[in-house]
Every structure is written in structure tokens, then in C-alpha cells.
Amino acid sequence: TAVPSVRAPKSVEVALECIRPDVTIRYTLDGKEPDASSRIYSAPLEISCEDTVKAATFFDDGRKAGKTLTLPIIRNEATACRITGNADAAPILTNGVRGSLRQSDFEWTAWTGKNVDFTIELGDSKQISQVEVGTLTNYCMGVHKPKSFEVEVSADGENFVTVAKRVFPDDEIFVDGNFVEDIVLGFEPVKASYIRISVGSAGKCPSNHVRPGMDSKVCLDEVMVR
């Protein structure tokens, strides 16, 4: 798992684990494949730059026990920043790790049938001009992008100004397929210490949907600020 670190500002804490007691986890941070001589994992890793964590398990005789885990950590102005507000906004939204096509891979923050808003604390004032949010569509499971996104910025965390908003029609929301889509909200450059993102529910799946009348589900994996 990867979450913003509580010990090192602007760092991501990566924890590795394996249920097998007879193997040792070894890892690299330079992009190379781990082998029997790589560093042994013993405590969560503090990642403060854009890195790729590669980890694998090994038996005592040096044989590799399974596949290699590859965990790219991307960085932007929101990476490892604190999130406050709605309880559904998990720290994984700023952990620098993208989700896969599987909503169960622990990198997707999800909620059903309601509006949500959350605030990202950037710390020092930053000049920004774009917010990008990763969304998941899985038609058969009723997972679709939200009805709307609104971005507000603030210097003090109390007084917010709207800088961007996007609203999507139903024919762009309830589409067939299983894919990741990054929603980009661009705006004129502005200095901000806080960003509030409001996510509007798309409501129930339409009558011609494979799950008619079911509350649609929203899955977000990462908020990227530039």
C-alpha cells in the first residue's frame, strides 16, 4: 500500500507485505529487477521523489518465489498532500499511484449515489493551472464517471473561488466498456494553498442500462495538480 507519509512531509509511505512466512521481500528503487542480493524490506519506505518501487519474494536459497510487483510513484503538486473534508476522500487520492482496470485493486476511492467534496492542502502557496482526476468506467458493474466536477481554490482554507467546472451529459457518462479516463480541468494560472474539489453524483443508471435503476458508482484513483 502507498499513502501520504505522516513522518516526512511531501513523501509517500510504501508498505509491502506477503502472507507467506517462508520468504523474504527484497526491493529496488532504481528500476532494476530485484534479485537475491537486493535490499531486504524491513520497514515502510519513505519515497520523496518520482521513483519506481520493484519488489519480489525470495526463498533462503535465493530462488525467486513469485512475480515482481512494480509500483510507479508519479509526482505532482498534490502528491503526498493532506486531504480533509468528506470521509470518503481517502489518502490514496494523493499517493502518487494509479489504479488499474480492477476497482478492487485498493487504489480506487469509491462511493455510490451521493455528492462528495474534499479539500487538498498544498502547504505553501503554489501557482497552478490544471487539475486532473482519474476516473474508472466499468459498465457491467454500474461504475461511471460523475455528473460533474468543480474546482475551487483558496489562500486561507476558508474563502474559496471557483476556477473550473465540467458537467457531463448522460450519453457521455453511461457508456459501455471498462476503461480509465483522466478528466482535465484547466484554468488561468492562479496561486493557491488549498484546492476544493466537488464531485456531483450521476444518479441512477438509465432504463436502457444493464443495471437499470441502480445508483451509479464513482471510482477515483488520483488527483493530479499542475
TrEMBL record:
Q: Which InterPro entries match?
A: FA58C, Galactose-bd-like_sf, GH29D-like_dom
Note the SUPFAM superfamilies from the entry. Galactose-binding domain-like
Coiled-coil stretches, from where to where? none
Signal sequence, renumbered to the chain: none
Domain GH29D-like beta-sandwich: from-to ranges: 10-63
Domain F5/8 type C as annotated: residue spans: 103-201
Q: What is the name of this protein?
A: Protein containing Coagulation factor 5/8 type
